[in-house]
Every structure is written in structure tokens, then in C-alpha cells.
Amino acid sequence: MLKFKNLAKRNILYYFTNRIRYNSCNNLELCSSNFTDHKSLLIRDNFITTEEENAILKEVEKKLNRMKYESSHWDDVIHGYREIQKLHWLESTQFIIDRLRSLVPPPLLPHTHILDLSPEGYITPHIDSVEYCGPCFAVLSLLSDAVIRLEHTESPDHWFKVLIKRYSVYVLDGKLRYQYKHSILNGKDATVNEVKIEKGRRLSVIVRGDITKEP
């Protein structure tokens, strides 16, 4: 019964509290004025506080700092990165992770993916493999602003760019999850409406839906 109540509570949080769509913003660049697919993006600024960011960093940096930045991922998508998978959190940070997990409808993968991009790091256009990720995932952005670009797989002239601010969270699902490749732009290409965005070291906290289980 407790498990059912928790599941119901998470569904309520997801469907009624968090479906705030990204309809218009100065930090948005579209391929054309009549383009509308960007309205499917869920994004929320100031999802966490500086104190909450510090709590997460304190918990993950000890392990990350023992690792070197890798020049390229096995699939050549991520460059200048280090990463860990984290299953258990301290009580002081678990509530933050729970808040992030409430943005993704169950079932979810049990672990949280921590992706650390160096100041020079970037992510090339890709769609997350259905073997490792379900129909929805949420990304919490720490330490630095960045620019995400989404491009339609079959119509490359359909694209948009968004400034992803530090402390913000964005969610990809539906059309944007399966029909759009997404990337995090490197320094020279990190612009929105010709405004240069300075990207430093960026830490992403990622929760993913689980495709291997039935809801």
C-alpha cells in the first residue's frame, strides 16, 4: 500500500505540478518564426539553490576528483568528460534527487547519472539509445550555463537552441526525445541569437525512465 501511495504521489507531482512548458524566452533561438516544436520542451530555472548545489557537489566530487577527464566517450558522443553512476545518496541530498525524479514518470532507472564536462567539454548531436533510457529523462545543470541545440533527425533545417542556466532543469520526452538529436555546444559554438554564452565546467545530474519495466 505504501509503495502504491508513493507511486500515486509521484504521478500527481509529475502531471499536475511540473508540466510547465517552455513557450517563449529571450534565451531561445529558433530556425524560423513559425517553428513550434520547442514548445514541447519542459524547462525550469532555479530548480535548486546554491546550498543544494553545494550539497550535491560535496557528495560526488571526492570520487570524481580521483578520475581524469576522458577525451572521448566509447560512442564518440561526449568529449572532455568524467562520469559516475550513483545509487545511494545521503539524507541531506536525497530529497533533492527525489524532487528531480518526480519530473520523470515511473518506472525509473534506480541509479542517477552524474556527468562532469570540463570547460572545453561538449556533447555531439545524438538520441539516447532506447537500450539504456526510457521515454523520458530529466537533467539538472550545475556549476555553469550551457547551450543545448536540438535538431530534427529527418529535417535538419528544423532546429532550436536554448540557454540552459545553472541551477535549472530540463526534461526531454515525446517528440523531442525520439525525433530530435540533442547536443551541448562547445565554446566557440555556444551562442543564442548571436550572444556568446561562456561555458565553464558543467555538472549534470540525470535521471532516466526505465524502458525495461512495465509501469
From TrEMBL:
GO biological process: DNA damage response; fatty acid metabolic process
Top-level taxon: Eukaryota
Gene3D superfamilies per record: Alpha-ketoglutarate-dependent dioxygenase AlkB-like (2.60.120.590)
A GO CC annotation given for this chain: mitochondrial matrix
Transmembrane parts of this sequence: none
Cofactor annotation: Fe(2+)
InterPro entries in the record: AlkB-like_sf, ALKBH7-like
Protein name according to UniProt: AlkB, alkylation repair-like protein 7
Organism name: Oopsacas minuta
